[in-house]
Write a structure and sequence with these properties.
The structure holds 2 protein chains of 2 kinds. Chain A has 3 helices and 5 strands. Chain A is an alpha/beta fold. In chain A, helix 1 links the parallel strand 2 (12-21) and strand 3. The longest helix of chain A has 16 residues, at 56-71. Chain A starts with a strand and ends in a 7-residue tail after the last strand. In chain B, helix 1 (3-72) runs antiparallel to helix 2 (79-92). Classes of the chains: A alpha/beta, B alpha+beta.
Amino acid sequence: MQIDATKTEGKWTVMAVSGRIDGHTAPEFEAACKAQLDKGTVWLAVDLAGVQYMSSAGLRVLLATLKSAKGKSGGMALVSPQENVREVLEISGFSSIFSIVADVQKLS
Amino acid sequence: MSLRSRLLAVLIPTIVLLLGIVIFASFRKSEQTVLEQINAETYQLASSQGVQFDILFESSQKIADGVAVAIASMDPIEKSSVERLLRNTLETSPNVFGTTAAFVPGATALGRFSPYFHRTSHGVAFTSLADPAYDYPRWDWYKTPLERNGGTWGEPYFDRGGGNVLMTTYSVPIRASGTTIGVATVDISLEDLVRRIRKVTVGESGFAFVVTSDGHLIAHPTEGVLSQRTLGQMDEDSTDGSMRQLAELIRTPGPDFVEMIDPFTRRSSWVICTPLQATGWTLTVIYPSAEILRPLRQLKSNVAVVSAIILVLLVALILLVSASVASPISQLVKQAEQYSRGAFDQRLNTNEGPTEIRRLSGAFNYMGKAIADQIETVKSTAAQKERYRQELMIAAEIQQSILPRIFPPFPEFQDRLDIYGLTKPAREVAGDYYDFFRLPGDRIAIVVADVSGKGAPSSLMMAMTRMLVREIAERNYQPAEVMRRVNHMLARDNVAGMFVTVLYGEYHLNTGFTRFVCAGHNPPLHLRPGEKAAAIHMKTNLPVAVLPATHFHTTEFTLGPGEALLLYTDGVTEAMDAQGDMFGMERLMDSVGPLSERPCVEIAEGLLSVVEKFSPHGGRDDDITIVTLRRRKEEEHMRVVQVAECHGGIRMELPARTGMLGKICSLAEAVGRDIGFSEGELYQISLALDEVATNVIMHAYGGDTNETFQVEFHPRADGLCVTVTDYGMPFDFEAKLNRYDGHATIDQPIGGIGLFLTRKSVDGIWYEPETFEGNKVTFVKYLQKQPVPP
């Protein structure tokens, strides 16, 4: 897994991630998300277009980050997940608590 | 251009040219001859006339001379004797018209005395010229001879008294005892001369005339009997130089024609002059050019007619000849066109025409028949060939299908092994092959072989060899024994006398230790990072199928971590370029050198493209086979500890580290893909295994440790069964499995999501804690969601 470029889209800070997010890489992912929130970002969007695989370890990081963002009166969004990842989000029920958009322009 | 027009085009100008040259030359010759002849004839005519006139004049001179001499000899000179002499002279000289003797007054006793006797129509008449009315001493005929002291011909004149006759007078001095005492004259008529000249005709309108010493013209057709004017006077009146040219010519007469404009008729004429010796006059003949050239023109037109006839005859002859040659050739051409349209049934007549044409026609007929026969043969063989070709294509497909073509061939060993192979047949089917297959334990067998010969026979031998090697090797014999048995079986029934070079290797996955048997084959190359490729020294053996009882020697070799092997057939080293140079070992080693650290697929394909570039002409007539194998450099703690077969499946022992999760997933996907799961299903299998393994590592072992756990893949006809066994802390699987219900909330307690996902991804899942073998989680995934068996 690797953290790619980060950019700003309106109030959102968009962080692009690629590769595998599993039990091995989740801590690194979590650290990256935490670093964003620590920098003062409260509206964090994660671009999942480059992520081929995500296990529950990834879901846990997303949930924890969402909680933190909400705690700071912010929010979190997921951008263009691949089909398999999206299915994981659906099955796990996480799609109901995250706003999932097809591309960064659709962030509100 | 047809033969006929070509013949005409070549021959006719040539003939016309030659004929032209001949005609021109002969015509020039004739022209010259004719002109010379006319010239000679005309000159002859003029000369003979001149001679006749000269005779007349000279005889008259002699008469006058005789009179002078007779008078001089009189002693004394008496009037009566003079008169008698003169009368006698006149009477005896019919040509003489009149005669006198005129005495110089005072020189003789006779005083002024000049009796003149002349002819009239009534006979001889006498006149005294001493009559004061005439007064002879003042006339030229008297004065001139005295002045010149010699005989003189006077200018012509008309005798008015004697019938208007054209006359001329010859006067000669009479000398006695040294003194001139008088002049004797004779008058002669020029009537005869005029008549003669007027009779002279040359051609139709040519004419002659006489020019006197003074330049008067006598008997000129337009100027009258005697011209009023002299040539000199006429010249003054004329506007061009033709009159002067004529005068000039008359002064210097010659025997040759001179071409000029006749000043009288203004016609182009040929002029010839001949002198009249006695009088100093000139006879001139003018011949109009047109009349001289008329016979020549006639000759010309005759020649032209004859030439035209000859030409017409020649053309006709050429046409006839060319037709006789061309018409059979046209027939041949027609026949050839028929052939080109595919009509081979027509035959030419071979009984007509020249021998060569008949023979050619015969050859054509033979060719037509031969082609027709050939086409029949080709037609019948083409269908047969097509059938063979299709059969060969099927054979090639079958042959390709028995080569390992799915890479990686051993996904379970992917962490330790990178292996790739290719065969490029020179023809439809190959005599080369490569193979790799698993042997019991962590071993694989690698085979590269090259059957002697090419095409279908070789491919059959190849299939047989491959089957035997696989069959015998899988019985777990030593490599040398495998080869001995394979050789024995192949050699026993080898009626075709074929043989196979084989490189057989038994590779130990965990150690890189390899036992090779090299049966007459090229030794493999050892590729080490940063070093030049090197051939591995092999103990040599006979090729397989040569002798039934052959024992094979084994070569032992250990491949270090990160190093690679390259096995190939001689199609690589013996590929030739356009100049006939072989690819050779040096080029092989140089080509793979830069690739030696690349993945095996790149080394093999890269080498193939270098060889194909080197030998692009399609002239490669040997199959090319390349196998590359690398022992992967692995971090020790991330290596699959052990792989073993178990109950028809694969069991792997893995370190309990999250870093292994990616590898476990790709293994699961590779196994699942072989079974035929879709990509979505493969993701689900990966996810399930990942979640279970994560659970084991994080919960059973409490994070990364040096402990191991086991994963077993059991492919089934209807799907895949996976068991994960650990030796760590057992846990309440059921509780954990049901902790999460799939309804996410923001305050979700973190836990149970992984097993929830596992449960949703597979068709069945069981937990068996603390068995004899440890804690086991087993899940099953069916192909296309088949129902769970009871």
